[in-house]
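Subject: Protein entry, chain in single-letter code together with its fold tokens

Area: Proteins and the way their chains fold up in space.

Attached in line: The record itself begins immediately under this heading.
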Amino acid sequence: MSLRKFLLPNIVVLILLSAVWVAGIDRVYLENDHQENLSKYLQVQQRVVDNYVYEADINELYKMSMHGFIKALNEGREESEDRFEISGTPADTVFTDLDLRNFREAFSKFEDAYLYIANNYPDQNMTRLTEGAIRGMFTALDPHSVYIRPEESEQIQEDFDGKFQGIGIQFNIIDDTITVVTAISGGPSDQLGIISGDRIIKINDEDAVGLAEEDVMSKLRGPKGTEVKVTIKRPNTPSLLNLTIERDEIPLTTIDTFYKTDDITGYVKINRFAATTHSEFMDAVREMKEDGMERLIVDFRNNPGGYLSQAIAIAEEFFPMGTKLVSTESRHARFTSDALSRKNGELRNMPVIVLVNEGSASASEIVSGAIQDHDRGLIVGRRTFGKGLVQQQYELVDKSNIRVTISKYLTPSGRTIQKPIEGDREQYAYEIYTRDSAIDDAASFTGHVPDSLVFNTMAGRKVYGGGGIVPDFIVPEDTTLSHYVFNFMLANRADFNFVRNYLDDYGDQVRAEWEGDYQRYRNQFSWSDADRQRFVDELSGHGLVISEEYTEPTIEDDQLKVSQQHLDEVLWMAEARLRAELARQIWGQEYFYPIINDAFNDILREAMNLWDEVNNLEALAATATN
């Protein structure tokens, strides 16, 4: 290429840009932020149109994005006289005869609106307005298609990668002070002897009192191998502890707890599906198998899902090679597929019960649906959330991300997991609280579900579609923990405060007596009368009023008013929670759940009575395959 041919186009561009600058027209094109914002909007629009599971309506996408754009512009201007005047301008949100044929026409109209606002209101944060437009655009889609800001993307990715880099503590902020709940076993803090109850009062020689939780995390987390200095005030220790901690990789475990509920029954609680979930799960079940486990309860309650690959990896452990586990269906052939078990699973002959509730979603529903449809085990609990849409994540020009629904899940029998999307996003999310609580067994669903939503398992049992997984045995919600006194305790963090202060005073004696024998603690520890009174005093300090004039619990302002008789009747719930919290602060997070399960877990207790039903199901499935 000659020098003349190379220079001529660039000279023309410079002349044009100079003319624009001199004329004062569309000067925003010369600013990088504006170019990035417009590119980002175009990226989002194109990704949605090209990949969304359903045909996207270009006109609706544009209209909703403009509503979001102007809503962000007028944020904080509630009174009509304070709102920006956009009528008749390119940013007008009154649409007449709108007939956009493709996303490029839609982008051109948005670009006109963007440039109008940028030129006429130069003090506006156009990045924030663009984010408003993108969020508005996503209201035209399903509730699981979302925009994720750059700073949120990193945190979410860490959660799903199953690890982060930092000092390895769980903490709470109590009275503006960072209080260690527990040091993560094997992490840098644990190795330096940091214990529950330690207060971090300085970070890198700067005052840490009064920091918000996100500020604490940003100061304590950092790349592996870097160092952070902390100053610790330890109860009953006169001098401060100054420690330099070298950051390291800290695992984010997805198994809350696993243990044997009796000599032959194993229990595993999985809180989400992240990159390490399958390996954590198999480590847990292998350990319990070595200890004599012959049957397994898997607890997916309140598990919101996560990686599809991890759900499939866990599901296939329960089946022979070639078993269909889940299907995805889309208007795009590239997003339509069947997932089959790729191996003979280690647990394919082990009796299994799966616990679910309305908080079990997505990946949890995939595993549950496969086990139910193949008559492989019993599903016990309450109907699951009904999140059966598959998202693909796309990174944008500024490192933010969008998640776009690309397909929907079907169980092996052909049931759609996704519940109907009705009303706005808030109504959709809170649908789980408005369900028919009177339905207390799966058989009663027959009268509520149309024939089109009745399916058959591989052995011929009836199962039900319409959204979520309907358990084989429905256990009504235990309302014990919705009690006034219990919730008052949690709302005021009185359980944590009490245990923290208890360990401040008696930590050495408690650890000397119990730390070496958790099982004995679980079975035998109890609170003394003095401890109970001390806890009641803690509640009173937060506004508990005890008076015989209150025949029923009464809430007035920030006070809870109860009679002594009523308090005596319900105090056992708080005592159980306090035992569990004490275990968490001595041994770690996984030791909290067995004590909670012992006291409150009706679904688990019901499941332990259903092993004969599991045996009957195994016999039925064997007959169907012969």
